[in-house]
From TrEMBL:
It comes from Niveispirillum cyanobacteriorum. GO terms for molecular function: glycerol-3-phosphate dehydrogenase (quinone) activity. This is FAD-dependent oxidoreductase. The lineage of its organism: Bacteria, Pseudomonadati, Pseudomonadota, Alphaproteobacteria, Rhodospirillales. InterPro entries: DAO_C, DAO_C_sf, FAD-dep_OxRdtase, FAD/NAD-bd_sf, G3P_DH_FAD-dep. It comes from the Bacteria.
């Protein structure tokens, strides 16, 4: 069946009892849908917006164990994350890759301190490691990082972590879940929980495109709503206290010349104790991140002026070419759903571990964690849901489960603009060949062909211009101004694919243009 919204809506209308219903289409929800479907359970996932609309499309683009968590002494978290890092790179080579990092050191003792930590990082990864760390001379650091400041530089450490395209991975997981029989729907919002004798028995939901309402019976319900998980918990128990401490992190996107290297830079401790990354990503340079407590969750968080200036100032400390506001092509902001901990002083002190909860009524809630460990979180969540639903436990097959479009890593052409589609790339090329102009770029400053919008509508459940330009491609993150310029042509093409009218086109362009303002400084 694949990702197909019409057939998914038909499955809702047909009724019946689902084994698992999952609320939330971010990393954890999609992973849970894949795990449950791969075990053979009748699985439904509902997302009120688009898949990976929130936090899951705004990560730092790293598949990592967490060097700073190692410094904090959280060895179990780092070990689990490193093992999951290795599995993810093996299971989805088309959307992940090994990324080299250099830690430039300006004091001799930093060489010893960070070198010892990164060697421990390698040991914790075990046989799933990506390559050995090694010390670099001053000359080697300068060769690998031609734009790093050299005054006081004594040497550095080179190590490996993973990198990925987060929303592309999300869609890949969604397609994988559909391959295993799951039904996944975007723009269907959960409006309430059904109960029988005090136990969760299903949900109510509304199709946001048509306004149709549904009562959906389920043996188990999973709350994977991320930063909005308390909204679902309050449907179960309105008296519950808020369970999350929210923190946002921003990233600045610059042209590749600011880094001019295939290696990334890690500054493990800035003046105020934060971690700073300077990364090559999709032909751009990404600088991040911040850790700013915020009072409430928002689907479109805004970068604060102080955060933008912090990153610009600190990039200037370490790069020979100091970036200015006018150099920023895009700024994107993600919110971390951190579980509240008594006594924690600020969100940077809150653990990044995930938390799994089962309420008295049987609502299974999963929150916290990070992209790297999505698969492990999903496995544990399905295990809990099976207990709630009274199922005979079955083992998860996802540790070595190849994701949709899997291609051998040595068969991936890094220069191919369609490489992220993996084994589906020939299908994409066939669509691009259908119409004159579809192979042309959406915009001269973007690496995407116009016809990719048609493919996204037909096969990846893209419903809006934002879906295409923000998540099926990364145009909005790579260059917000270019994405706005591409919006009218994308809207016209989508209207043809989805059967929309001129009024819809105008509204879509206006909405996307307004949204893109958040991504411009």
């Amino acid at each position: 069946m694949g990702l197909n919204r019409a057939s998914g809506i038909a499955a809702l209308a047909a009724g019946g009892v689902w084994d698992l219903v999952i609320i939330g289409g971010g990393a954890t929800g999609l992973g849970t849908a894949l795990d449950a479907a791969a075990r053979g359970y009748r699985t439904l996932l509902l997302e009120g917006h688009d898949f990976a609309k929130g936090t899951s499309s705004r990560a730092t683009k790293l598949v990592h164990g967490g060097v700073r968590y190692l410094a904090q002494g959280n060895i179990p978290l780092v070990r689990h994350a490193l093992h999951e890092r290795g599995r993810l790179l093996a299971n989805a080579p088309q959307v992940t890759r090994r990324q080299g990092f250099v830690v430039p050191c300006y004091r001799w003792w930093d060489m010893a301190f960070y070198g010892a930590g990164l060697f421990a990082y390698d040991l914790l990864a075990g046989k799933l490691g990506l390559g050995r760390s090694r010390l670099l001379s001053r000359a080697e650091v300068m060769r690998r990082l031609p734009t790093v400041k050299t005054e006081g530089l004594v040497g550095g450490i080179h190590y490996y972590d993973g990198q990925f395209d987060d929303s592309r991975l999300a869609i890949t997981i969604a397609a994988s879940a559909a391959d295993h029989g799951a039904t996944l729907l975007n723009y269907v919002r959960v409006t309430g929980l059904l109960k029988e004798d005090g136990r969760i028995a299903g949900i109510t939901a509304r199709d946001m495109e048509t306004g149709s309402d549904y009562r959906i019976q389920a043996k188990a319900v999973v709350n994977a709503a991320g930063i909005f998980m308390d909204d679902i918990r309050h449907m179960d128990r309105p008296d519950l206290a808020e369970g999350l401490s929210l923190s946002q992190g921003i990233h600045l996107v610059l042209d590749p010349g600011f880094l001019a290297s295939d290696d990334a830079i890690l500054i493990p401790k800035t003046d105020d104790g934060r971690v700073l990354f300077v990364l090559p990503w999709l032909g751009r340079t990404v600088i991040g991140t911040t850790d700013t407590p915020i009072p409430t969750a928002s689907m479109e968080p805004r970068a604060q002026e102080a955060e933008i200036q912090f990153l610009l100032d600190h990039a200037a400390h370490y790069l020979t070419r100091a970036p200015a506001r006018s150099d920023v092509l895009s700024v994107f902001t993600g919110i971390r759903p951190l579980v509240k901990v008594k006594g924690a002083s600020g969100t940077s002190a809150v653990p990044r571990d995930h938390v799994l909860m089962v309420s008295d009524s049987g609502l299974v809630t999963i929150t916290g964690g990070k992209w790297t460990t999505y698969r492990e979180m999903a496995e544990q969540t399905v295990d809990a849901a099976l207990r709630v639903g009274g199922f005979t436990p079955t083992p998860s097959p996802t540790r070595e489960l190849r994701l949709h479009g899997w291609t051998p890593r040595d068969g991936i052409d890094g220069t191919d603009p369609l490489a992220a589609y993996g084994a589906d790339a020939p299908k994409v090329r066939a669509v691009l060949a259908e119409q004159p102009g579809w192979t042309a770029p959406m915009h001269p400053d973007l690496p995407y062909a116009l016809g990719e919008a048609a493919y996204a509508a037909r096969h990846l459940m893209a419903r809006t211009v934002e879906d295409v330009l923000s998540r099926r491609t990364r145009a909005l993150l790579l260059n917000a101004q270019a994405a706005v310029a591409a919006a009218p042509a994308v809207a016209q093409l989508l209207a043809t694919e989805l059967g929309r009218d001129a009024k819809w086109i105008d509204a879509q362009v206006a909405e996307f243009t307004k949204l893109a303002g958040i991504y411009r400084v």
